[in-house]
Amino acid sequence: MSFADRVPGYLERVEHALDARLPGADVRPASLHAAMRYAALDGGKRMRPLLCYASGEVLGIGPERLDDAACAIECVHVFSLVHDDLPAMDDDALRRGRPSTHAAFGVATAILAGDALQTRAFEILAGDGASDAAERLGMIAILAAATGSQGMTGGQAVDLESEGRRISAAELEALDRDKTGRLIRAAVLMPCCAVPDLAPAARAALDRFAECTGLAFQIRDDLLDIEGEQILTGKTHGADAARGKATYPSLLGLDNAKRRADELYAEALAALEHFGEAAEPLRWMARYIVHRDR
User: Fold this and answer.
1) Nearest by Cα to 226 from 265, 253, 261
2) Could you tell me if 291 and 264 are in contact, meaning their C-beta atoms sit under 8 angstroms apart?
3) Residues 6+ away with beta carbon under 8 Å from 247
4) Looking at residue 98, what DSSP letter applies?
5) Which of the residues 39, 121, 130, 242 has an alpha carbon 20 to 30 A from that of 234?
C-alpha cells in the first residue's frame, strides 16, 4: 500500500481531528467560532498536515502522536490565509472556491478569527495528548519560530513592502523561504521532536528536503496563478499580477520558472536518499507539490 493510497485516510483523519479541536459554532461567542470553523473546515489541500504525517512515517512515528501537530500547523496556515485575504493585505474575496472569511463574516470578525486560530494552534500543542511534554515543547518552539517575525509573518511583511517594485530572483527566494517555506519546514521537522535520539544527519536531510520543497511549492503556486483553472485552484485568477507582486514567472519567464521548480524537486529527492526506500511518503509529497493543478 503506497502513501498515495493512505492519503484519503489522512485527509479524513485531520478533518475529524480539526473538527474535534475547534470550538463548536454554538459555543459563545458563536459568531467568532463559526468564522473559525468556516475558515478551517471542509476545504483546502491539507498539504502541511500531510507533510507532517509523511515525515512521521519516514521516522517511524504513528499518526496518533502527530494529530495535534497536524492540527496546530493547519490552524496557523488557515490563520495566515484569513489575514492574507483581508482588504489591508491581498484583498481577495475568494478562497478555497468560496467567499473568503472576511467576505462571509465581515472584516472585524475575520481578523479575530485569524487571531483565535493562531492561539488555538498553541493551545492544542500545549494540551494533554499522545506526546510527552518534551516533544510538545519542541514542537511549540519550531512552530512559533516558523510563524513569527523571522518566519511566515516576516515574509508577509516583506511581500507587502515589495509590491509594485522590481526585486531580484534572489530576493524573491529569500522572501518565500520565510513566507511559505518556513511553515512547510515546520511541518516536516515537528515530527523530529518525537525522536530525541535522531541523528543530526537525518534531521539535516529532512531540513534540506523541506527547504527545497517549500520553494518549489511557491513556484508552482505562482504558475497556477497564470495557468491554473480558477475552479480548481479556488482562488482569484491573475490576482498576483493585478497587485503588482513579484512572482517567479514574471522574473524568470514561464519556462525558466518551471525549470527552477524541477531543479528544486530534484534537490529535494536527493536529500531523501539518506533514508532510502523509507522516504517514499515524502517523495510522493514532493511529486504532488510540483505537479499539482490546484
Assistant:
1) 253
2) no
3) 172, 222, 225, 240, 241, 257
4) E
5) 121
Assigned C-alpha cell, 204 = 539535516
SS3 31: helix
Rg of the chain in Å (alpha carbons) = 18
Contact 176, 155 (CB under 8 A): yes
Q: Would you tell me how many other CB atoms lie within 10 Å of the CB of residue 154?
A: 16
Question: Counting beta carbons within 10 angstroms of the beta carbon of residue 203, is it exposed (0 to 12), middle (13 to 18) or buried (19 or more)?
Answer: middle
The answer to whether the pTM exceeds 0.85 is yes
Q: For residues 35-69, b (16+ Cβ closer than 10 Å) or e, as one string?
A: bbbbbbeeebebbbbbbbbbbbbbbebebebbbbb
**Angstrom distance (rounded) from CA 221 to CA 90:** 15
The DSSP result for 117-141, as a single string, is HHHHHHHHHHSSSSS-HHHHHHHHH
The three grid cell numbers given for residue 97, joined into one nine-digit string = 472556491
Mind listing the domains of the chain with CATH numbers? 3-291 (1.10.600.10)
List the grid coordinates of 229. Answer: 483553472
pLDDT digits 0-9 by tens, 77-136: 999 999 999 999 989 999 988 999 999 999 999 999 999 999 999 999 998 776 788 999
Measured in residues, the chain has a length of 294
User: Cell 508552482, residue?
Assistant: 220
